[in-house]
């Protein structure tokens, strides 16, 4: 709350912000295969990075954060899925013994 701002005016301001967000009509929920294809095509042409530009230039009705997360967690071509190899599992156990639960540091090594 800003100095001198009443509780009522703060509620009104937050309400207006919420309405602005609703007027953008951003889609939520599961992604369709058509949306995935649009995002993959966009990233092939323009690269990763400016995720807020995806909505403007691709026609997707998703926010930049949603596009970034979909790409990073599901669509990246180098994303590995499936079981760990015995070598990967051995390395994880070794690093866990050395670093504990510092998973980000383990991933960096």
Automatic annotation (TrEMBL):
Residues 23-75, 76-109 form the Myb-like domain. It is found in: Nucleus. InterPro entries: Homeodomain-like_sf, Myb_dom, SANT/Myb. Keywords: DNA-binding, Nucleus, Repeat, Transcription, Transcription regulation. The keyword Transcription regulation applies. Residues 26-79, 80-109 form the HTH myb-type domain. One of its GO terms (cellular component) is nucleus. It comes from the Eukaryota. CDD domains: SANT. PROSITE patterns: HTH_MYB, MYB_LIKE. GO terms for molecular function: DNA binding. PANTHER family: TRANSCRIPTION FACTOR MYB33-RELATED (PTHR47995), TRANSCRIPTION FACTOR MYB65 (PTHR47995:SF18). This is Uncharacterized protein.
């Amino acid at each position: 709350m800003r100095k001198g701002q009443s509780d009522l005016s703060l509620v009104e301001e937050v309400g207006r912000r919420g309405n602005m967000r609703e007027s953008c009509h951003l889609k939520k929920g599961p992604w369709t295969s058509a949306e995935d294809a649009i995002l993959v095509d966009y990233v092939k042409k323009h690269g990763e990075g400016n995720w807020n530009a995806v909505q403007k230039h691709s026609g997707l009705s998703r926010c930049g954060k949603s596009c970034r997360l979909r790409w990073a967690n599901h669509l990246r071509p180098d994303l590995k899925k499936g079981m760990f190899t015995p070598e990967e599992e051995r390395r994880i156990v070794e690093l866990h013994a050395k670093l504990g639960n510092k998973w980000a540091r383990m991933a960096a090594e």
